[in-house]
Amino acid sequence: MTFALGPNVRLDRPAFVDPTARIFGLVAAGEGSSFWPYTVIRSEGTAGVRIGRCVNVQDGAVIHLGGGKGTTIGDYCSIAHRAVVHGAEIGDDCLIGIGSVVMDGAKIGRRSIIGSMALVPPGTVIPEGSVVMGVPGKVVATRDNFAANRRNALVYYRNACAYAIGKHDAWSGEKFAAWRSDMAARLAAGEEVEMS
């Protein structure tokens, strides 16, 4: 299987890279990250794209530079289907929802959720633990999203490891249900569960 990865791309033991993913330029990603069908990550400038550990970049998502600035995505983030992150900074344990857009110079505080189809305008600063919805995006709630966001990242990590060996049913069966239940209970108890 061949991947469209540029010569400057550095992926640290990715969990899964779909053959349709396109990753070019100064791009670095931490251990356990996954890149799903038709994701596009490009970095033509010197600022680069830095992606943390156990990040899932889902189907059709686009990550790019913006305004001459790089893009940074923290650990245990989910960049959902068709989301766009353009020259922005995303903190740890964030969920960037389906079809949402985070624009140049925006900063998303850790443990935040950007709701589906939301638009975070250039230069917007979103505080930690926010839930953002709408166009333009507004903070509609403040809460600790850690457990839900970390759970999503870990479920995607498990699925990525299965896809890497040709198994496409990692989210079914009693074994998965027991694992998910145990992991959710540990997160609810305040434990910072890591990928394993």
Strand-helix topology:
Elements: E1 4-5, E2 10-11, E3 16-17, E4 22-25, E5 27-29, E6 34-35, E7 40-43, E8 49-51, E9 56-57, E10 62-64, E11 71-73, E12 78-79, E13 84-86, E14 89-90, E15 95-96, E16 101-102, E17 107-108, E18 113-114, E19 119-120, E20 125-126, E21 130-133, E22 138-142, H1 146-164, H2 174-188
Parallel strand pairs: 1-4, 2-5, 3-6, 4-7, 5-8, 6-9, 7-10, 8-11, 9-12, 10-13, 11-14, 12-15, 13-16, 14-17, 15-18, 16-19, 17-20, 18-21
Antiparallel strand pairs: 21-22
Helix pairs in contact: 1-2
CATH topology of the largest domain: UDP N-Acetylglucosamine Acyltransferase, domain 1
Helix/strand-derived category reads alpha/beta
Termini gap: 25 Å
Strand content range = 25-35%
Can you name the CATH architecture of the largest domain?
Answer: 3 Solenoid
* Largest sheet features: 8 strands, mixed
As for the number of domains, it is 2
Order of helices and strands: EEEEEEEEEEEEEEEEEEEEEEHH
Number of helical runs? 2
Quantity of strands, as a count: 22
Could you write a compact summary of the structure shown?
Strands 3-6-9-12-15-18-21-22 form an 8-stranded mixed sheet.
What does this entry look like structurally?
The protein is an alpha/beta fold. The chain folds into 2 domains: 4-142, Hexapeptide repeat proteins (UDP N-Acetylglucosamine Acyltransferase, domain 1, 3 Solenoid); 146-188, no CATH class. It is built from 2 helices and 22 strands. It has helices at 146-164, 174-188, and strands at 4-5, 10-11, 16-17, 22-25, 27-29, 34-35, 40-43, 49-51, 56-57, 62-64, 71-73, 78-79, 84-86, 89-90, 95-96, 101-102, 107-108, 113-114, 119-120, 125-126, 130-133, 138-142. The strands form 3 sheets. The protein has an 8-stranded mixed β-sheet with strand order 3-6-9-12-15-18-21-22. Strands 1-4-7-10-13-16-19 form a 7-stranded parallel β-sheet, with no helix packed on it. Strands 2-5-8-11-14-17-20 form a 7-stranded parallel β-sheet, with no helix packed on it. Helix 1 (146-164) runs antiparallel to helix 2. The chain is globular. The two termini are 25 Å apart.
